Amino acid sequence: MRIIVDGMGGDHAPAEVVKGCVEATKFTEHTIILIGDETLLHKELDKYPKAKKRIQVVHASEVITMEDAPVRAIRSKKDSSMVKGLNMVKNGEGDIFISAGNSGALMAGGIFILGRIRGVERPAIAATYPILGKGVCLLVDSGANAECRANNLLEFAVMGNIYMERVLGKSNPRVGLVNIGVEETKGTAMLQSAYQLLKNNNGLNFIGNVEAREVPLGGCDVAVCDGFVGNILLKTTEGMGKSVSALLKARLMETLRSKMGALVLAPQLAAIKKEFDYSEYGGAPILGVRGAVVKMHGSSKANAVKNTILKAIPYAEQGVVATMEEAIARIEEDTCVE
Amino acid sequence: MRIIVDGMGGDHAPAEVVKGCVEATKFTEHTIILIGDETLLHKELDKYPKAKKRIQVVHASEVITMEDAPVRAIRSKKDSSMVKGLNMVKNGEGDIFISAGNSGALMAGGIFILGRIRGVERPAIAATYPILGKGVCLLVDSGANAECRANNLLEFAVMGNIYMERVLGKSNPRVGLVNIGVEETKGTAMLQSAYQLLKNNNGLNFIGNVEAREVPLGGCDVAVCDGFVGNILLKTTEGMGKSVSALLKARLMETLRSKMGALVLAPQLAAIKKEFDYSEYGGAPILGVRGAVVKMHGSSKANAVKNTILKAIPYAEQGVVATMEEAIARIEEDTCVE
Predict the structure, then answer these.
(1) Using an 8 Å Cβ cutoff, are A17 and A303 in contact?
(2) CB within 8 Å of B303: residues ≥ 6 apart
(3) pLDDT in tens, B295-317
């Protein structure tokens, strides 16, 4: 299997991306292909003489930046690492494309270059949302589509269900609809319709509405929502995590005695810190395009790059996208509207 | 000043509500009036022989329960503690009404009995959102109106601004619009219109869009959003708080050594626990009705009741509702649409 990594995307590219690829080679036999400015990439790779022969480099002369307008960038920067990487997936020269670059451009590129899965109106970004001490929940859509229709949410659920089962390894995942109350009459008219579509789909283990408070507590395995709600949920969690960490740190450094206590608790505090560390949880797949594409956090460092690569392997190797295509094609017969 | 407290509302009424009122008498000279079943209330009050003469009891023979349909309950249970309490505010027999009862009924009762402030289309519930270690932010709407128009958000901002300044004591509060990005073109068409209305209002210190991650970090003093977004933000925070607490507890109890560390850190852990404790932060005012009404959490115990009463005092005593009425009346001249 060939894993293509965008060597130029993200705040710490190429150095940390290259380092992350090198780290990943210690845990996987699969081929890793770095795409980007070959001079820069080789310069970084030369720091790791043992690992460098395990990593291929494909040259791309252009870079899509965070400031680029997504659609225009994809159309005009034909020799960018992102466009070239996506084309390699399309042409069967690679099995997955991973990038920490411009999210909008990655989504637009996925749609224009790989195409949408037939029947999917809106591809989504599915975040792997950490449940402290209990693994992850898949939050889909986590921010790509601010406004959605009920059928979009059904598509998110069907694809998210497959990703959770096949890539993240949770069998028969509990699918919940994020809403402001548990009763099926809660929320907007759109959510009420989505509830009915999810309830009537035979392929889903739909557990009904879940309130946002249940998501961090592990109340479902796949949390379905529009991208606006997904963004609010994810960003609130991120902010809370930062806020709690700052509070803990300040309190533990308060007095000499508290510093001693913190020293005694060092192993536990390290474990807690690790739970909060997004770089442990892998990247966010773009669901609904005809190929495996994974978005990494823009500020990813080597550890996040390594984990994203390793956790993405089952996405590329098991024909997950093909399974999604089949499930989406069956969506109407699977959903018996009363 | 006369503070009316619903003796029958909430999961722990009347015992904890009565106890909370008794605690409050230690910190305020204002009159506290408990409303509800007088036999039950006197029975509870008899437990506090010293404080009981400081608390008046007004009898109400009916109770609105959590299961009651809000509008029907307000219309049919004329002798309930909630309807009677709101009528007392309307008739000038009390300056504020505080209840831990059915939120929907309290909102409906506020609207039917006290009436809406002229110019306010949708009253809102404003939550006092805890910023760990840094006080509170006012989140408005926190759940009353799942779908809003741009002018509703402007009204929330104008009222929330006054509440933050006059009741919570923050001068010139920073008003932010909760959105999925900071640029003024972000979000739905409704939010883009709301952005312009807030930006063009002279009475507000509008700091622009704030992402949800900034809210727990104290990025604004008044966070304006529709009730759906407010609910997601608030409930995610609640769930994260619970999840973090559980993780901390589990880790600290892990080994003998970690238990010792926890013992050393006892004062800091207690302080952290207190930061997470919603009962410290006071209740949620219903903004937009012609009287001071405050909702307490349904599971409020004595400490939450006491704090809600004490923190609500400036709401009742300073003519805050009258100031809101004036500001809403001026809203069109204050908002110069370009």
Answers:
(1) no
(2) B20, B23, B279, B280
(3) 999 999 999 999 999 999 999 88
Here the contacts of A92-95 (C-beta below 8 Å, separation 24 or greater) are A93/A2, A94/A2, A94/A3, A94/A4, A94/A33, A95/A1, A95/A2, A95/A3, A95/A292, A95/A316, A95/A317
Chain B hits for A190, Cβ within 8 Å: none
How many Cβ atoms sit within 10 Å of the Cβ of residue A105?
25
In which order are the strands placed within the sheet that holds A55-59?
A: A55-59, A31-36, A2-6, A96-99, A292-295, A284-287, A124-130, A136-140, A222-224, A174-178, A205-210
Q: Give me the half-sphere count of Cα atoms (radius 13 Å) on the Cβ side of residue A141.
A: 24
Cis peptide before A95 (omega within 30 of 0): no
| Cβ contacts of B233 on chain A, cutoff 8 Å | 212, 232, 236
Q: What number of other Cβ atoms are within 10 A of residue B182's Cβ?
A: 14
> How many angstroms separate the CA of residue B61 from the nearest CA in chain A?
31
The letter for the amino acid at B269 is: L
Q: How far is A157 from chain B (nearest CA, A)?
A: 19
Distance from chain centroid for Cα B159: 13
Residues B166, A281: contact at Cβ < 8 Å?
A: no
Residues of chain A contacting B187 with CB distance shorter than 8 Å: 146, 228
Angstrom distance (rounded) from CA A139 to CA A134? 15
Q: Which residues of A192-228 are buried (b: 16+ CB within 10 A; e: fewer)?
A: bebbbbbeebeebbbbbbbbbbbbbbbbbbbbbbbbb
User: Which residues on chain B are in Cβ contact (under 8 Å) with A250?
Assistant: 133
Residue-wise pLDDT for A119-147, tens only, equals 999 999 999 999 988 889 999 999 999 99
DSSP of B147-163, one letter per residue? S--HHHHHHHHHHHHHH
Distance CA B130, CA A214 (A): 19
SS3 content of chain B, % helix, strand, coil (to 5): 50, 15, 35
Instruction: Give the residue from B213, B252, B275 with the most A CB atoms within 10 Å of its CB, the best one to mutate.
Output: B213
Q: Tell me: the pLDDT tens digits for B114-151? A: 999 999 999 999 999 999 888 899 999 999 999 999 99
What is the value of pTM for the model shown? 0.93
Whether residue B261 and residue A248 make contact (CB cut-off 8 A), yes or no, is: no
Q: What is the DSSP letter of A214?
A: G
Q: How far is CA B216 from CA A139, A218, B35, B229, B242, in A?
A: 20, 21, 36, 14, 15
CA pair distance B61, B70, nearest whole angstrom? 18
State whether B232 and A227 contact (CB < 8 Å). no
Report the alpha-carbon distance of residue A334 to residue B279 in Å, rounded.
Answer: 47
Report DSSP letters for B64-110, one per residue: --TTS-HHHHHHH-TTBHHHHHHHHHHTTS-SEEEE-S-HHHHHHHI
* pLDDT for residue A83 is more than 90: yes
pLDDT per residue as tens digits for the range A252-286? 999 999 999 999 999 998 888 888 777 778 899 99
Q: How confident is the model over B212-263, as pLDDT tens digits?
A: 999 999 999 999 999 999 999 999 999 999 999 899 899 999 999 999 999 9
Count residue pairs from A and B with Cβ separation < 8 A: 158
Question: Hey, what are A261's tokens?
Answer: 């206590």
Q: Provide the ipTM.
A: 0.92
Phi, psi of A315 (to 5 degrees): -65, -40
Q: Do B252 and A268 touch (CB under 8 A)?
A: yes
Question: Once rounded to an integer, what is the mean pLDDT over residues B78-103?
Answer: 97
